[in-house]
């Protein structure tokens, strides 16, 4: 009988030891190995599971679970959804830190319960400014705005929006005046900023057509078509918009039916611009002479420009070049020589 009592007592002790047995998994909690679950703030599969899990791991810095696990089933990383810092939000990163301060807050999210982390940003007087700290002295022009922030000392005239389609490459980093030239970026990567202070300041880059997008993500300038006729340029997305380039005449190869092609204007002449349709461009459209001191004699064979009367030389064959010059420039020294001769006699 005594032996039986001793045995029962021993079994009871063993059972109670088993009930209080520490979990194999140091990151688990529970009364017995069969009820060892991941602790609050841990995720994964508890080592005490059958078959054994790979273990409970701490949630990424700043995050926690809303409580301990309630079973030995795997706890997904996504269970680490709560941020200790009530002014922060979990961005789902599996690498620490996963909590970032909410919009309107700055600092480092607190990594444990009760810690003080993200703090409220100052409210700027300038509605086109944004603060980076707790005081108005950290109010700078927002991304896409230029000028001098009203919150500066002395007060600035305020941040103004960049011309339509343009933006700064980020928010200002100090209260120093942000020049209009800081609005150098075009939202549309296929457009170029022409520096205009009045909207729109972005124009489609060479080889693109359309209206530049006025905001990030919008679709604006699109690539022009590649013309069969190398002396033509497209104004739109299809070859039906391929017209003779400026300085060329004839019928574009891309026309329907196909033309014989655009040909260069006779030397020294040009058209007043590119063709505006696929209709034949007459040779007579090559009416302009690059040289303002020359006249077009309508020859279809180069050169078609001759110096105006009173001018001599070779007409300039391209824009900007010098060509015909006034005869008087040659006549004057001659007249001077003649005058000196008369004086000598
Ligand atoms: C407990 O969690 C920590 C943090 O994730 C980890 O470094 C450690 O290896 C874990 N311990 C066990 C026994 O799995
Ligand atoms: C989450 O925020 C942290 C801290 O700011 C950052 O390092 C990480 O890249 C972010 N991850 C994602 C997926 O946004
Ligand atoms: C959240 O922000 C408020 C206002 O700035 C601050 O009083 C509070 O301490 C912040 N909470 C934490 C946990 O840091
Ligand atoms: C903010 O910018 C807009 C656009 O330039 C402007 O119309 C407005 O007056 C600015 N607000 C302030 C407070 O300066
Ligand atoms: C810039 O482009 C816009 C839009 O095409 C135009 O209205 C403006 O005159 C151009 N300004 C300059 C300085 O080129
Ligand atoms: C730039 O042009 C390419 C090619 O036409 C087009 O796919 C893209 O959408 C354009 N980008 C924008 C911002 O419009
Ligand atoms: C036009 O001028 C050029 C160059 O002077 C000359 O060779 C050509 O004969 C002229 N043609 C006509 C039609 O006058
Ligand atoms: C036109 O003639 C004037 C006077 O000789 C000269 O100054 C000018 O450079 C000439 N223009 C060209 C395009 O050659």
Give me some keywords for this one.
alpha+beta; two-stranded antiparallel ribbon; single chain; 10% helix; binds 2-acetamido-2-deoxy-beta-D-glucopyranose; 2 helices; 345 residues
Class computed from helices, strands and strand pairing = alpha+beta
Beta-strand residue fraction:
15-25%
Q: Work out the helicity level.
A: 10-25%
Point out poorly predicted stretches. 6-20
Q: How many independent structural domains?
A: 3
Major sheet strand order: 1-2
Counted beta strands = 30
Could you give the distance between the termini?
167 Å
Ligands and ions found: 2-acetamido-2-deoxy-beta-D-glucopyranose
Largest sheet, described in full?
A: 2 strands, antiparallel
The average pLDDT score comes to: 86
Q: What spatial form do the alpha-carbon principal axes imply?
A: elongated
Radius of gyration, in Å, reads 41 Å
Q: What is the number of helices?
A: 2
């Amino acid at each position: 009988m005594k032996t039986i009592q001793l045995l029962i007592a021993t079994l009871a002790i063993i059972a109670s030891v088993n009930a209080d047995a520490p979990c194999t998994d140091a990151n688990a909690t529970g009364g017995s190995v069969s009820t060892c679950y991941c602790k609050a703030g841990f995720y994964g599969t508890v080592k005490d599971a059958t078959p054994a899990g790979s273990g409970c791991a701490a949630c990424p810095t700043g995050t926690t679970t809303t409580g301990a696990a309630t079973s030995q089933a795997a706890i997904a990383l996504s269970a680490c959804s709560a941020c200790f810092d009530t002014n922060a939000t979990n961005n789902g990163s599996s690498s620490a830190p996963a909590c970032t301060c909410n919009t309107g807050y700055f600092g480092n999210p607190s990594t444990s319960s009760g810690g003080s982390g993200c703090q409220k940003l100052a409210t700027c007087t300038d509605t086109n400014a944004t603060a980076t700290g707790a005081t108005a002295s950290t109010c700078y022009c927002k991304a896409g705005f230029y000028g001098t922030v009203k919150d500066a000392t002395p007060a600035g005239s305020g941040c103004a929006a960049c011309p339509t389609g343009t933006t700064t490459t980020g928010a200002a980093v100090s209260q120093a005046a942000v020049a209009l030239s800081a609005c150098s970026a075009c939202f549309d990567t296929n457009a170029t900023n022409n520096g205009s202070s009045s909207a729109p300041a972005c124009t489609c880059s060479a080889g693109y057509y359309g209206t530049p997008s006025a905001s990030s993500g919008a679709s604006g300038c699109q690539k022009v078509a590649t013309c069969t006729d190398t002396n033509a340029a497209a104004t739109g997305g299809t070859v039906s918009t391929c017209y003779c380039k400026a300085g060329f005449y004839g019928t574009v190869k891309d026309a329907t039916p196909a033309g014989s092609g655009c040909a260069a204007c006779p030397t020294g002449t040009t058209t007043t611009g590119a063709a505006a349709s696929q209709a034949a461009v007459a040779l007579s459209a090559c009416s302009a002479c690059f040289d303002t001191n020359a006249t077009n004699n309508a020859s279809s064979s180069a050169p078609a420009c001759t110096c105006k009367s009173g001018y001599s030389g070779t007409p300039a064959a391209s824009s900007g070049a010098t060509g015909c010059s006034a005869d008087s420039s040659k006549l004057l020294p001659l007249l001077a020589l003649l005058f000196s001769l008369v004086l000598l006699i």
